[in-house]
Structures are given as C-alpha cells and as structure tokens.
Amino acid sequence: MDISSSAQFAADPDRVYAMMTDRAYLEEVCRATEASTYEVSVVGPKTRSTRSLKAPASAAKFTGPELTVVEEVTWGAGEGGGTRTGKVTMTIPGQPVTMNGTMRIAPAGPGTVLSLDGVLKVAIPLLGKKLEESAAPAVMAGFRTHQKVGDRWLAV
C-alpha cells in the first residue's frame, strides 16, 4: 500500500535536517508517540529509533497488546538549496510488516517541507491487504508527530 504525507516547517532545510538528525529531537518524537520504551541512535547521517507501542486493535490479535517498531533513516548528501533525501525502512521484528521509502527535505515557500513516500507491506496471504489498510493510519500518525514536535522544537 502506498503511503504519502508531508509536514511544513518555518525553518530553512539545513535547520530541519539538523533537527531530524538530533538524538534529543528523535527521543521527543518517541515520547510524543506514547512509546512505553524507546531507544534512539544517531551515527552521522543515519538515525535509528526502536519503540514499543500499543498495537492497533485490528493488529493486536496477531501481535499481542504491544509491538516494537524499528525505523531507520539514512540521509544522503545535501543537494542544491539544502534539499536532502533519505532512505527509510520500518520493520516490526517478528512480524511480516515492512515499509520502505524515502523522506525528503526541500525548501518550500517561506520554509521547508518534509515529505514521506513509501510502500507499506504486510506479507500475510489473504489478510495482508486488509492489515495494510488498518496499519496505514498508525504509520501516518507516527509521521505527523514530526509536525507537532518539530514546530515546538524549532520555536525554541
């Protein structure tokens, strides 16, 4: 299932990239998603967050009450105007769920747009498509958390 979303920030692309690769910012995103536990690492242009979240009701019968989400972003070098593209992978260890795609930071209007484009896949015969449809809102809500946390972060 295709996933696409964006967030707009009132800051230049270099500042948004610095935020997206700041461990304290990523920890704040984990807290805002109500993760019961989380771990964040940043090594150069690569970020990784592992968080335990309450499973969506539609998935809980397969995953149990909580699931662990691992998200990795590997950012490429800056391009003209501060544009940057990152490869995104999201997995749920022990579950046949993956999302692969790209995040992009680019100048837009008076600030910067952060966009996500990816493909969410649940590899379960017959039920996969239905589970993708039920999981997509949770993936999108997780991405939208960047908007809420990022607005506060950049206002400081």
Class by SSE composition = alpha+beta
Parts with pLDDT < 50 across at least 5 consecutive residues: none
Main beta sheet: strand number and arrangement?
Answer: 7 strands, antiparallel
Note the total helix count. Answer: 4
Q: Strand portion, in percent?
A: 35-45%
What is the number of strand segments? 7
Q: Give the overall average pLDDT.
A: 89
**What's the Cα radius of gyration?**
15 Å
Distance between the termini: 37 Å
Widest β-sheet, arrangement of strands: 1-7-6-5-4-3-2
Proportion in helices: 25-40%
| SSE order | EHHEEHEEEEH
Q: How would you sum up the global shape?
A: globular
Question: How is this structure best described in words?
Answer:
This protein has 156 residues and is α+β, with helices and mostly antiparallel strands. It contains four helices and seven strands; from the N terminus they run E-H-H-E-E-H-E-E-E-E-H. Strands 1-7-6-5-4-3-2 form a seven-stranded antiparallel β-sheet, covered by helices on one side. A hairpin with an 8-residue loop joins strand 4 and strand 5 (84-91). Helix 2 (23-32) packs across helix 4 (128-155). The protein is globular and about 45 Å long. The model has no long low-confidence stretch (mean pLDDT 89).
